[in-house]
Amino acid sequence: MPILYEGTELVLHHHHGATDYVVVTFVGAHETHNALSTFFLEPVLVKNNITSFGITSKVDFWYISEESCNIINILKENLQPYDNIVLIGLSMGAYPALVWSRELRATTIFSMVPKYSLDPNECNILPHYVENNYRPQMAGMAIKKENISGRVFIAFDPRHEHDSYHCSLIQEEIYKNCDLHFIKIFFADHVISQSLSGSYEFGSIINALAHGTEQDIIQTVSNVRRKNVNNIRNKFLIYKDKKPFLIFKSLTGKSIRKYSKCMHLLAERDTVMPIVNSLLRKNLIREGCKLHEIFIYNTVFKTEKNNCFIKNSFLAENISYIMDHHSNFISINIENMKFHSLPSILGKENHYVFVENSDKNLCIFVNFQKLFICEHDNLLFFSEEKNNKTLYLEDIRIESNIYYIKTSIGYIVARPDTSVNLNSPNCLEWEHFTCLPNSQNFSNSIRNFDKNCEILEDIAWLNSVEKQSIVNDNSIPQSPETSKKKNILKRLLKIPS
């Protein structure tokens, strides 16, 4: 995109589109490395062929710069032919979208999570803003009503306490003099543009800002937010502990299939596994197993194909995997005899630790043989028979599916960095575990998948040979393997046996 101005701190970009209105955008903080290469919403604006100007910054000082006047003067000259001017800014960029609006003759402003001021003498401000984004010439920078014109739409997540506080200060300052509207973007946190993402989706918001009524704008933003995959993911993770069953129904029901962009949530480990964990800890074991099966199907069967590795696919129903507080699975490295946690049951490096559903003893399987895991004086060892050193799960409370593991020197604790220690003095959340049963349906799925892997390998071989010639060539030495492949060829070529 053409650059109309480049200073030491600010940059002005331009895209010449085909619209009867113009959009001016202001990028948020932490994008200084992109100041010369792109501007906020550029992909959306270019794809929708919207005439636009984008102001970017090489420094994160809220566009308060000696170069601001240069940018404003260039913009005023270029905006003269337009009567419909839309300003859009995010976070740091939400501030100039408001305070430059009168000078730029803005008709509509979409200001996402603006700060009232970064001056600690004017309001409460988080320390990192003062340390990293404030300099002396920004003193007295509070938003003032006389600088604002046009319809003002301020978007924020009401769950974000600091953003809500600053929105209330802005409301107190300008509500009497402006056509002010607040739009609540639930489950978005601070970077709410991620909950409104998508070229078509944000394009529809821009079109509403340019031509819609106040109700049209609010309705459009709300509709985009409700169907946005980032927003849905955030909502699930926020409510995973309080309402895991409702989230399970949402993920496995028909409604999610209406939104194709949301289907890949079922393959996201960091989304699905915490929900599985919450279901299991609420003793919703059937639902937890079902969601885990769906996750494995979507991550392995659909994406990994025959490049995956699944240990212990022979296991029966009378054992369970052990899951820690961080939704990882407990495993053991038999070379150094240390516990570790792994993010899924698809790991290759260690042996997974299982628990017998009957008496809760910890065990592993090596070459189809069950070995019990024992501990003495901070050292792990194996035994073919269970004994008084064998580790086992103990209930936090009866029928809760939440357990702890006592050792001779404390409690087993699983940490976020995947390390597992035996000597914690506490018995709190990080020392709590739950069980994921190895369901028969899941075992059958794994076995069927193993067979499918063999078929995939055969098909890969078939694609590399001349099929008809091999079927007809009786000189090829016969063996069970070649006979098998010949039969597959015959089926594919519809040749009678």
Question: Could you outline the blueprint of secondary structure elements for this entry?
Answer:
Elements: E1 3-6, E2 10-15, E3 22-26, H1 42-47, E4 52-57, H2 68-78, E5 85-90, H3 94-99, E6 108-112, H4 127-133, E7 151-156, H5 161-174, E8 179-184, H6 199-211, H7 214-227, H8 229-239, H9 244-252, H10 269-281, H11 285-304, E9 319-323, E10 329-333, E11 338-342, E12 351-352, E13 354-356, E14 362-366, E15 369-376, E16 379-383, E17 393-395, E18 403-407, E19 410-414, E20 420-424, E21 434-437, H12 440-463, H13 467-472, H14 480-493
Parallel strand pairs: 3-4, 3-5, 5-6, 6-7, 7-8
Antiparallel strand pairs: 1-2, 2-4, 9-13, 9-21, 10-11, 10-12, 13-14, 14-15, 15-16, 17-18, 18-19, 19-20
Give a description of the structure.
34% of the residues lie in helices and 21% in strands. With 497 residues, it is of the alpha+beta class. It has 4 domains: 3-227, Rossmann fold (3-Layer(aba) Sandwich); 232-307, no CATH class; 319-437, Trefoil (Trefoil (Acidic Fibroblast Growth Factor, subunit A)); 444-493, no CATH class. It has an 8-stranded mixed beta sheet with strand order 1-2-4-3-5-6-7-8, with helices on both faces. The longest helix is centred in the last third of the chain and has 24 residues, at 440-463. It is elongated.
Segments where pLDDT lies below 50 for 5+ residues?
Answer: 304-310, 449-471, 492-497
CATH architecture of the largest domain: 3-Layer(aba) Sandwich
CATH class of the largest domain: Alpha Beta
- CATH topology group of the largest domain: Rossmann fold
Structural class: alpha+beta
Biggest sheet: strands side by side, in what order? 1-2-4-3-5-6-7-8
Strand content: 15-25%
- Total domains: 4
Mean pLDDT: 87
Q: Can you give the helix content as a percent range?
A: 25-40%
**Whole-number radius of gyration?**
30 Å
Strands, count: 21
Oligomer: single chain
Shape verdict: elongated
